[in-house]
Structure formats: structure tokens, C-alpha cells
Amino acid sequence: MNKTYIGTGTEADFFARGKRIAQKVDRGEPLMETRILTFEDPADVAQLLTQARIGLFRAIKAEPASITSIAARLHRDRSAVKRDVDALLAAGLVSVETTVNAGHGTHKVVRAVASRVDLHVMID
Q: What domain range includes position 24?
């Protein structure tokens, strides 16, 4: 299972996590494939994970499809969905793959990168 963790943290947290990973490697322990997005400010997390983008991510995770198909399924404007897909793509939460559409050239399919996303935010 692919996991993505999104949360808040400091530079010290980043280096401590790197040290723990290096120690695991030194001991020969296997590493689980994990993506970690860390923000210093909880407001930045909230800016990325709007209610619309969370709903979009869930829809993509449930059924990968083209932006046009996803927009129709969610009853949202295609350009708004495209902007939200671009934000999720930049954060590494989704991928966009060009696939062959038999007899009709190619089309792009949006897929969730992780099967699970954990959100951990601490507000001081």
C-alpha cells in the first residue's frame, strides 16, 4: 500500500526523520514507500487541501479518469477541476498519464498516487 503523509513540521523534524531513515538502512531494515509533504504553517495545508480538492481526490481515487469525465461526474466546471488537479499534481498527490484511446488517439488519465493519505496538523 502506498501512503502519503501530509502535515506540519520544522526543519529539525525533517533532519530527525532523515536520521531515523538512515539508521533503518544501516540496520538493513526494509523501507516502506512513503511520500511525506511537510508544511511549516498549518494555513498552507488548508490552502492545498480545500473541501473541493479533498472531494476531487476521493473521486480520482475511486475512479481514475480524464479531467473532463471527472468534472462531469462531480458536476463542476472543467477549468476549476483542471486548476485543482494541477494543485494536487504539484503536491504529488495525483499523477496524469497519457494513454492510448483506441481509434481516437490519446487522452490523459488522472490517478491518485497513494491509496491512503494521512493528515497530521498541529496548530500551536
A: 3-120
